[in-house]
């Protein structure tokens, strides 16, 4: 390699800020250098480039598969909601009012009633169900739609918080409260299993406090994950609405005993925010580090000394062998130095690269380099598909274990107010502590500890003390606390 190539390669890597130096800038650099998004003339909105959208497609396809295994059917509803419809559920509209964007003109004419661009679709689904549900025989209806929503956020960051983003929103309607509660928790567990098994992101499953629950819900369940910088990220939520929307919209059915009853509803959603989670849980100073299951490209073949006879042909044969084994693979035939290609593969988070040069071909082997650990493995070309497939499974599990270990190391327990405050001020991460259930304590903790909020009351409760960490009153639940995105 020429000296100028070495300098270019070094500069290429250095363009990503160290996460220890400035985590926010590191995140922005990774998103930009990996070509996941681009900026637009629409403030607060992003272009999702092919590399970013390919990740979302894999997330969407796997989630959709898991949804359908539980009986979910996909539908699509309009993106515009009449104001009168939005106003029918008081708590719901108050919760979303600050973020709503309104359409007031249709062509050159003023609309008789202004329309909001959907921030979420509970009201539209409720209006739909009111017309579609008549008898117990019509229930349950377990629907989901893949779409975008618009929320006029003041502060935005690619994937984590943008004004328009992609998501799925499930909306179900049931005959009984018990069925609705069962579906609410079932979908929360679908999200949790997906995050851990497919994205290699460990999560805490639990219930939001009354203060933090979704507007209009009787209960909100959540999965919370810890990012590399110790901040929490809400990764997916599932809401039980009880019969609140049903009463507001008149969603009733005739039961088996010939009496008229109100339905019970749920909703649940996961968004493109999960791409941000992938970056912040697994990434490093070289860029992205994608778990194999979600990676659009799982293996990159890099021919060494491409101008030598037979190298390119052998590299293409290696690519074909991997593809035949079901591996998503590409070959880098660009007119660049190998060092540049290695940096590019690492920055884009491709789980493994396979280096193949003249000497490797002579000896019937290749060099496999893991993105997660940078371990180099010499492997025979014979049976390479099976070798790489097994290695990808190992990497998937190792990445999950690494993230879980880091989460455990950044999760603390506190039994006194002084200990709680000291951890919150000096050690980023989750803090487990008891709580009395009083919203006043929640507010005081947030105000006095620089934005520490309740993340969830975990399903796996622990009894750490008899009294609330803040006020000293009798404790009602153990809560995960932390600063969050």
How would you characterize the overall build of this protein?
- The chain has 485 residues and is of the alpha+beta class.
- The chain has 15 helices and 23 strands.
- It has helices spanning 3-14, 23-33, 50-69, 83-86, 90-96, 122-132, 177-197, 244-249, 273-282, 311-324, 338-347, 358-362, 384-409, 417-426, 439-448; strands at 37-39, 46-48, 73-74, 80-82, 101-106, 109-117, 141-150, 164-174, 204-207, 219-226, 232-242, 252-254, 260-262, 264-271, 299-303, 329-331, 352-356, 365-370, 376-380, 411-413, 430-435, 453-458, 477-482.
- Mean pLDDT is 95; it is low at 1-7.
Quickly list its features:
alpha+beta, BirA Bifunctional Protein, domain 2, Rossmann fold, 485 residues, eleven-stranded mixed β-sheet, five-stranded mixed β-sheet, 15 helices
- β-sheet strand percentage: 25-35%
CATH class of the largest domain: Alpha Beta
Broad shape = globular
Return Rg in Å.
25 Å
Largest beta sheet: strand ordering: 3-7-8-14-11-10-9-22-23-21-20
Q: Write the CATH fold name of the largest domain.
A: BirA Bifunctional Protein, domain 2
**Unreliably modeled segments:** 1-7
Number of domains: 3
Record field, number of beta strands: 23
Counting DSSP H or I runs of 4 or more residues, the number of helices is 15
| Backbone structural class | alpha+beta
Could you state the CATH homologous superfamily of the largest domain? Bira Bifunctional Protein, Domain 2
Identify the CATH architecture of the largest domain.
2-Layer Sandwich
Largest sheet: 11 strands, mixed
Mean pLDDT: 95
Terminal-residue CA separation: 43 Å
The helix content, as a percent range, equals 25-40%
